[in-house]
Specification:
The structure holds 2 protein chains of 2 kinds. By secondary structure, chain A is mainly beta. Chain A is built from 2 helices and 13 strands. Chain A folds into 2 domains: 75 residues, 2-Layer Sandwich (Dna Ligase, domain 1), CATH 3.30.1490.120; 113 residues, OB fold (Dihydrolipoamide Acetyltransferase, E2P) (Beta Barrel), CATH 2.40.50.140. In chain A, strand 5 and strand 6 form a beta hairpin. The radius of gyration of chain A is 23 Å and the shape is elongated. By secondary structure, chain B is mainly alpha-helical. Chain B is globular and about 50 Å long. In chain B, helix 1 crosses helix 3 and helix 4 packs antiparallel against helix 7. Among the domains of chain B are: 43 residues, no CATH class; 60 residues, RNA Polymerase II, Rpb4 subunit (Growth Hormone, Chain: A, Up-down Bundle). The chains are: A mainly beta, B mainly alpha. The interface between A and B is large, with 57 and 54 residues.
Chain lengths: 204, 149
């Protein structure tokens, strides 16, 4: 789910950083600008390397030194079809929301939750709905008790809204839609010790 | 800042490689780290925390490279190999969602699982739970751990 990306940009290094070695100073500026930000290519997770920096001119009337920098960053950008281990964050009548800690906008919409299922108010959390999968008369609750494996269906980068309602959810610049509707997906506890069962009801 | 993307994909990284990178920067499980660390930022620590709970935390560069090489004989796509390394499936049912149309291709599922077992160490918490030597242990069975929000 991670990859390297090479970029080029103009970086302004403020005067207070100029006593540091150039590479360190540029890295600091890049970190402030890019770390944990969503770019068109995904979420920038780390600055990997500075390949080159040229320039260093100070423009008239300007304090910072300007450099043209070529650098490599580590980006979080899963591929469609990738199976990822995540944790349960919350759920509502639309579906589930999963999290990786550093990325929390993973949604499993209701149609991608295995059926038959039902959605009921969560007895432990008044504000939440919880989902329960019903299989062979057994009920499997989806909650935060264990890791949940999901498969990436789609990644979207919604455009920044020009206005938002007061109580709207914070804007998510990168949204991953996942599915848990397949053998081996969903809470890992569902599949424990299943290799024996699997031989009988192999219906793939 | 007008970012110019020179190369959107300059190489895929396994979770192991990202963890290795953060480790080399000085990331650790030490509780004083968040205040003290100059080289690893808070957001990078969130990635570190996530990766430490996955198979990547018990892998080595050597085992990952060896595994990749040996996978060549199994006719898997690069993305599938990467996914297997990251997820470390230990049973048939964990491996199949990773593979694309497994029924149409003749994939040696048993062979792949045996290779995983041989070369990739089990997940961190699994060592604690493993009393008997049952091979078909499910990966990822973890007690309800902290959610790093």
């Amino acid at each position: 789910m991670f990859c390297l990306s090479e970029m080029e940009d103009t970086v302004r290094v403020p005067p207070d950083l100029l006593n540091l070695p150039l590479e360190v100073a540029i890295k600091k500026v890049l970190q402030k600008l890019l770390l944990n930000k969503v770019l068109s290519i995904g979420l920038c997770v780390s600055i990997y390397d500075i390949k080159s920096a040229e320039g260093g001119f100070v423009l008239p009337g300007d304090g910072p030194a300007t450099y043209k920098v070529r650098f490599i960053i580590v980006v979080f950008r899963p591929f469609v079809g990738e199976v990822i281990a995540a944790r349960f964050k919350e759920s509502d009548s639309n579906g589930l929301r999963l999290t990786l800690g550093f990325f929390e906008d993973i949604y499993v919409p209701a149609p991608l939750i295995p059926r038959p299922n039902r959605c009921e108010p969560d007895p432990y959390n008044r504000n939440q709905m919880r989902w329960v999968w019903i299989f062979e008369e057994q009920e499997y609750i989806i909650d935060d008790s264990c890791q949940i494996n999901f498969r990436v269906e789609n990644i979207s980068y919604p455009p920044v809204p020009t206005e938002q309602a007061e109580d709207a959810k914070p804007f998510a610049p990168m949204v991953i839609t996942g599915t848990i509707d397949d053998d081996g997906l969903g809470p890992v506890s569902w599949w424990e010790g299943c290799s024996e069962r699997n031989n009988e009801d192999d219906d793939t | 800042m007008k970012n110019i993307i020179v190369k959107a994909n300059a190489g895929a990284l396994t979770n192991f490689e990202v963890l290795d990178l953060l480790n080399s920067r000085g990331a650790s499980k030490d509780t004083t780290r968040v205040i003290a660390s100059e080289t690893v930022s808070r957001s990078e620590y969130k990635v570190y925390d996530y990766l430490m709970e996955t198979a990547a935390s018990t892998q080595t560069r050597d085992s990952v490279t060896k595994f990749s090489d040996k996978c060549k004989g199994f006719k898997l796509a690069k993305a599938e190999i990467l996914n297997i390394i990251n997820l470390r499936p230990s049973s048939d049912v964990e491996l199949t969602p990773i593979l694309e149309r497994p029924d149409e291709r003749e994939i040696d599922i048993e062979g792949i699982l045996a290779l995983v077992q041989e070369l990739l160490p089990p997940l961190p918490t699994l060592e604690a739970h493993k009393e008997n030597e049952q091979e078909e242990t499910e990966d990822g069975e973890q007690p309800n751990m902290e959610t790093s929000v």
